[in-house]
């Protein structure tokens, strides 16, 4: 059957070329890819899982996909090829698309034929250039820090900041000028992933999307992420939660609120958390009599109960503790915590007033609030 399929495809390419060209939706150039290698087109379902859409094979370093139907809205598709790593992202509607495959890394392949794909290709190029610069700046800054060269460090930081501003400006302009294309949420997703835009700025960009794009899978996921971020942003009411303390007693956040309360996400295995603990202990000892309270949420894993309890004692953390021993479990997800240490400072009404204060910053804020 496979042999017959190859013969049929070869016949179709060579004997019915003109007819095929009329129906081709995607034309692929695949230099170096052997005859008979399969090309798979996939989409994403509503849960973000890959689902197959179509399959074809490479013959004479070429492949194609025929148009099956008229698409009412722009869609994202992924191409993979037997024997090659990565995938090729396509943004398709009803235009004809050309794909020039780089078989050693499909991510580097070129896609042309529509304004959306051109915008995506331009962004990828600009992003790659920025990434190279950022890596170089990081190396230069590390060297300057080791030699305590303040002048060089300042110069590198200024150059890095200028490059970041330039890339962010370019990216946001690309989003707003392509707000009717799913390239807009794709680019915004990259900015969020690389922490080049905060939730407020991201929401402003999201609001520029055409309604049809806001209903797309990627935009919907961004909206959900931002809604979570906004639910624990400064000014929001901290979501209540419940967990077991080291003795198995259930404790709720709302039951232990002080005049000022710190929610501290940490774990016994987290080096930066343990290094910050003496600072938090000092703050607690200084301000507890003035209404400062702490509830620490441990992200220790199942089987880590002993380590969690030992760390509390060793670090002299004499305040409320809870854990579900589920790593980045429900409480962490509720607060959109994906890295630790992570902290939220609340007022007496449970309103978030600051996040991620470290070292002297925590002491200064407590001094301001409690003295």
Structure description:
Keywords: Cytochrome c-type biogenesis, Disulfide bond, Redox-active center. Residues 232-371 form the Thioredoxin domain. The longest helix has 32 residues, at 115-146. The protein has helices at 2-15, 17-23, 115-146, 150-177, 183-193, 199-206, 211-214, 217-231, 271-287, 305-314, 330-334, 359-370, and strands spanning 24-29, 38-44, 50-57, 62-66, 75-81, 88-92, 97-100, 110-112, 242-244, 250-252, 260-266, 292-298, 320-323, 342-347, 352-355. 44% of the residues lie in helices and 21% in strands. Helix 6 runs antiparallel to helix 8 (217-231) and helix 9 packs parallel to helix 12 (359-370). It is of the alpha+beta class. The termini are far apart. The chain folds into three domains: 2-112, Immunoglobulin-like; 116-231, no CATH class; 242-370, 3-Layer(aba) Sandwich (Glutaredoxin), CATH 3.40.30. The strands form four sheets. A five-stranded mixed β-sheet has the order 13-12-11-14-15, covered by helices on one side. It has twelve helices and 15 strands. The model is unreliable at 1-23 (pLDDT under 50).
